[in-house]
Every structure is written in structure tokens, then in C-alpha cells.
């Protein structure tokens, strides 16, 4: 039996909005450790990994490991029916082919049960080894989202170049070119407004803006985003979920001829 | 001659927005009692009844009973040109084939006259007898609107079931099922936030969500909605209009085979 | 070399939004006097004239007169990437076929360079002689925008009639007629809320609402609009740009048969 109670239910709503543009169907894996998901996007170019640790739930009961295949758009439809202040409980019986989302209003006057059919989804879990990155940029997530959106009005790809002084986002298209430089800045009033660069060596990599823009759907989950870059590895765009875990997006850089890697 | 002056003109704008989705053309009936309308929706399934009592107007002159056929979309186009703080006056000369809406800004600096052609509309006035209902639910109108909208993302019909403890709204569709229970709750800070149930006997009836969603366009008119249910009668969804009257929507329950009643 | 630095960069964004609906491609003319533009709309019915005087810029360097042909939609795409608090600098080298827009965030943490290709655009500069107008109406720009929008839901043209007492906007269409009268009113709390009429002789002229609605895209630039009317001249709809200049729109009145003038 599975019963996961999350007082801050709006967080689960935001998680779904963050990944449903990228992934249609996916298995949610429940274990004693937490509630997690790993899935390739439908074109098999980007990978998303979600972890919500069991300690972050008010109540977390998971008698045995369970993998539940869900259509994320249908799940999002149901979660959108939860109020932003509602407590959300995810429930499933062992062997059942349905999952129930229960929404309780803060004053307990309104209680909703949404029951959704589960799906069988083939998936292979990729082991993602810990890696050393050439450069790690932490910056305000809203700033990163704004930059990706702005550059999309000019071009299709972004070159991210990191030096000690700052990170540069560049694009080019039919109507012209654009360069946006964010300087390292640790002396800000609020730590979440800082732009902090940890660099082993300079790096300059090209990515499809379309995917970057999809990743930024996770912006409401965290005030900061961390971008980890290395010339031989997919970039990791990570949004921390306070006290609970993270959403990480992986995307291979575009190589010379504009080919995308990381396909199976 | 007809001259009806309504200081709170925004109320008339809200009335039009509440009914124009359901009804295209209708006769407004003016008498010494008030300004009223009764009309079937275009598919002849739902009935809407509006009453604005003469006492609610700042000035009310109606020399003889008058029935004015109007296209509600055109009327709404004109009323949308009134500012939210404007005073609205409805004027018509005896025997004229036009009606004039006059909008005065609060400081009288701006005065607008909109003259609209009237239409000949056949209509029969249904007598709606007072009835005893098995259950009457009063609840916050925004809550009811939210529930109808949420359930529409899952299914096409809603089962409304009333017991002493609360009212349950249920639906089912391809992606799963949903149940939302609102408990009776009279101990709230503001009386308009209460959910109050008067029940003679339990009742459980099925309705098309499409119509319920249309009815909730009246939500801006009142903070509460009253739903009167009886197994042999159309449901009445009523929005009171403060100090003036009401909008009432009538809809027959769906019977076993999913057939709709109340057709002519 | 050209380098124009505008601390209040949002102003340039608003200028572009004000004219890009009307004009696709246009030459911006830079001289010691200022940064200006004059262009006919694509159907050659309306004329727009912009002036941003050099004194209004924080830094203004223009070594020799320069005419830069730009696609206004592309320019607007780039300017939309500037934050509302950004400082905008327009830069061009002599003989270059590109222009650069530089956006600096207030704290200098983020610096963006957008480079746009210039175009060769044939244009003739019309001399617009100073003229005497029969009537000049100054009124809140939001009020004028609202009136043009409201009348558009009824008809296609507006008759603007000025008397000593006020200005009347009228239209007629299939569903009826509308008249909106704004009375002269100088006794207001804030001078920008006044409606002031300077009249030599009464005037009544007809204009296409479609163009009037385009002109009102400039509303965010100024709290007041000035409408100058004369029976033999195009109307001038002017939005002052504080401390810098103006946008003026010219439109010929419709004559008896509904023909438009001012075509080449």
C-alpha cells in the first residue's frame, strides 16, 4: 500500500507543469527513499529526472517498491483541480491499476478524490554517474528563463560560454544576432539573486533553445537554477525543490554539424 | 414611455454576461413590478428567469406593460461600452422600435447614448409554480463555479448527491473518476462563506456539466448560489441580485438512458 | 559614429509598440537635433511622425546625419528583450549595414547586445507645414482609447464633432447607433484628467475607426492626447513624450462618398 501526504500540494502541481511539456507518459517510482521519475522526452533528446525524498512528505508510507505508469497530461488535468492551499495525498493499493489523488482544503470543508487509471509503460532506468563539470553556474531562475525566451525570438540555438567573469548566452538568426552577458555577482541583498560561477576551465557549448525553454517551465519551483557544463557531457539544468529534492534536465550539446547526441 | 435608471450600472452588465451564452434573443418584459426576462436556451433544455424589481432602480417609470425583443449579444456589446462606475438608464418611447441605453460617468463629464433596434420575438411565458424541494444547498458561488469547471476536465455530466452531512459532486470520464464533497459548514467568519444544507430527504441527480458551466457565468452577481433539488423537478440554480431580484436557471435532470427532459 | 543612450529605455519600447502596427519598414533619421521618423502606413492613408530630441538622451553622439532603414517588427522583437528598467543605447558605425541595441540592467549585472541588419528603404520626407486648426481637443489618452475601442464594436467610422461645450464621438452600424459626449472640464484634481477645448469654429469630421484604434497604441506614452481638427486638413492625433518630443499621427477625414484622401 502507498500513501503519500504532501501538505504543500501546490508543489506537486508545479512539478507536473514543469515536466508535462517534455514527457507524455512516464513511470513514477515509489520506494522507501522517495517518489521519483526518470524519463526521456518524446523525441529522445532530453532526459528529465525528478526526486521528492520521503522526508519531505508529512506522511510517507510505501510498503513495497512500486512503479506507476501515468499519462502526465491526464495527471496534470487532475492536479489542476487541487486548490493552491490544498493538501494532496497520493494513494494506491498493491496490485491496483488505479491511483487516487485526494485533495483536502485547508479547513477540511472540501474533500476531493480523483482516481486515475494507470498505464503499462516500458522504460529503462539510466544510471547517471556523478561527474566533474568544467563550469557550474548558479543564477536566478527567472533571469535564465527570460534569457532563453528572449533569445528564442532571434534564433534557434544558444551558445553558452562561461569564463571567470561571467556567462554569455548568444544566438543568431535571420534578423540579426544577440549576446547577453551575466556577470558574476555575489554581493546581492538576497542570496537567491546572486550569479555565482565555479569554473575549472572555460567552456562554450551550443544547445537547442526549444529544449531550454521547456526546462524553464520548472521556474516556479525554485528561485535559482544551476547549470552544469562540461564539453564531453550533457548539460544539467537543475531546479532544487526546497527540503525535498530536485528536477534535473539533461541535454546533449549540439556538435559541429548541428547533430544532436544522446539518442538511443 | 419607459425610463429605468440604475445607479449601479455594472450590475446590468453582469446580468447580460450571465445569460448571453445561454440565450441569443429574448423579450425583456417591463411592468410596474420590474424588469424581467424568461427564456429557454437555444437548444430548449435550460430555462433562465431574471427579475430586477422596480424598487431597486433609482428611477423607474413604466407607463404601460412593454415587451422588448433584444439580441443579447448586441445588447452586451453596447453595455460593455459602459464604464463600471457608470449610471445606466434604459429608455424607450411607446411604439418605438428602438431602445436607448444611456451611460453617465460618475462625474457627469461623459455621457453616451447607445440606440439599439428591437426585434419581434415569439415567446411563450411559462408559469413556474412554487414547489417543495427535497434538498436546498446554499454555498459560495465561486466554489460551485470552480467545482463545475474542475469536473468538466474529467467528464460531461455531474451527479449531485445531498445528504445531511454534505453535498457530493461526482463525474466519470475516459481518464478516470472524480468526487468532490463539500461539508455543511455554518461556523464561518463571513456568512457568504457558509455551506448550508436544508434537506427533507436525500437526493441524487445527474446533470449536463455544459449547462451548469453556463449558469456559473452569473457568479460575479452574487457571492452565494442556491441549488434546489427534487427528484421530479428541474434543478433551480439561483443567484440573488442584492436588493433587486435574482437570476434563476432551471435544468431537468438526465434520466436513466441519459435523455434530457423539459423539451417542448 | 552614432551612440544614443536612453536611461528610460522602456520609452523606446513603447514607441515601437505605438507605431509597428501601422508601419512595417521605415527610416529612422539621426541628426544633431534628435532621433526621428516619418512614415506612411502600408496602405498610404495615415502618416506617423516621431521626434525624440537629442536633449532627452543621457548621451547623444551623432557625428553626421544618418538614415537607418529598419523593419519595425524585428526592431520591436529585439526591444522586447530589454527589461523595463534597462538603459538602452543605440549604436551604429559610419557606413555599417547594422545597428546595435545595447541593454544594461540597472545594476549593470546583465548586458545584452542585439545587432540588427539595416535595410534600404525608399522614402520621401513630406514637409508638414504648421497650420491653424479650427478646434483643438486635449483629453485623457485612456479615455480617447476607450471611446475608439467602444465605438468599433458598433461601427466602422467615427464622426468627431466639436462645439464649445464638448466633443462628440458618433458612429452607426448594423446593430444601432452610438453617441459619446465628453464635456469640457478644467476643474479636475490632476491636470492630466482635464478635457480642454480650444475652438475657433465648430467642426464635424468623419474618420476610419481602424486607424484611430491604431493610433491609440501610443496611449502608454502619455496620459493626455491632443486632437487637432480642421475641415481642410488631416486630423493630428498627438501624444507628447515627456521631455523628449512626440508621436503625431495624421489622418485625412473621409469625404462625402466615403472616399479617403491623402493617397499619393
From TrEMBL, chains A, B, C:
Residues 1-125 form the Proliferating cell nuclear antigen PCNA N-terminal domain. It comes from the Eukaryota. Residues 127-254 form the Proliferating cell nuclear antigen PCNA C-terminal domain. The keyword DNA-binding applies. One of its GO terms (biological process) is regulation of DNA replication. Pfam families: PCNA_C, PCNA_N. One of its GO terms (cellular component) is PCNA complex. Keywords: DNA replication, DNA-binding, Nucleus. GO terms for molecular function: DNA binding; DNA polymerase processivity factor activity. The keyword Cell inner membrane does not apply. It is found in: Nucleus. NCBIfam families: pcna. PANTHER family: PROLIFERATING CELL NUCLEAR ANTIGEN. Belongs to the PCNA family. This protein is an auxiliary protein of DNA polymerase delta and is involved in the control of eukaryotic DNA replication by increasing the polymerase's processivity during elongation of the leading strand. This is DNA sliding clamp PCNA. The lineage of its organism: Eukaryota, Viridiplantae, Streptophyta, Embryophyta, Tracheophyta.
Amino acid at each position: 500500500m502507498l500513501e503519500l501526504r504532501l501538505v504543500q500540494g501546490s508543489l506537486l502541481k508545479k512539478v507536473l507543469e514543469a515536466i508535462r511539456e517534455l514527457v507524455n507518459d512516464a513511470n513514477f517510482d515509489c520506494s522507501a527513499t522517495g517518489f521519483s521519475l526518470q524519463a526521456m522526452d518524446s523525441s529522445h533528446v532530453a532526459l528529465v529526472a525528478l526526486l521528492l525524498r520521503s522526508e519531505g512528505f508529512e506522511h510517507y508510507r510505501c510498503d513495497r517498491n512500486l512503479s506507476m505508469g501515468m499519462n502526465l497530461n491526464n495527471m496534470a488535468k487532475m492536479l489542476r483541480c487541487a486548490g493552491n492551499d490544498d493538501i494532496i495525498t497520493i494513494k494506491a493499493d498493491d496490485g491496483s491499476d488505479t491511483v487516487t489523488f485526494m485533495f483536502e482544503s485547508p479547513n477540511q470543508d472540501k474533500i476531493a478524490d480523483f482516481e486515475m487509471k494507470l498505464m503499462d509503460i516500458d522504460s529503462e532506468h539510466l544510471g547517471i554517474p556523478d561527474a566533474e563539470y568544467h563550469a557550474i553556474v548558479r543564477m536566478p531562475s527567472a533571469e535564465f528563463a527570460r534569457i532563453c525566451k528572449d533569445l528564442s525570438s532571434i534564433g534557434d540555438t544558444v551558445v553558452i560560454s562561461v569564463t571567470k567573469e561571467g556567462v554569455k548566452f548568444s544566438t543568431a538568426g535571420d534578423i540579426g544576432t544577440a549576446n547577453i552577458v551575466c556577470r558574476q555577482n555575489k554581493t546581492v541583498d538576497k542570496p537567491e539573486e546572486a550569479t555565482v560561477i565555479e569554473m575549472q576551465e572555460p567552456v562554450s557549448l551550443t544547445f537547442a533553445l526549444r529544449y531550454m525553454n521547456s526546462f524553464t517551465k520548472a521556474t516556479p519551483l525554485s528561485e535559482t537554477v544551476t547549470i552544469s557544463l562540461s564539453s564531453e557531457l550533457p548539460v544539467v539544468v537543475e531546479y532544487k525543490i526546497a527540503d525535498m529534492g530536485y528536477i534535473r534536465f539533461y541535454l546533449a550539446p549540439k556538435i559541429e554539424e548541428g547533430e544532436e547526441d544522446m539518442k538511443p
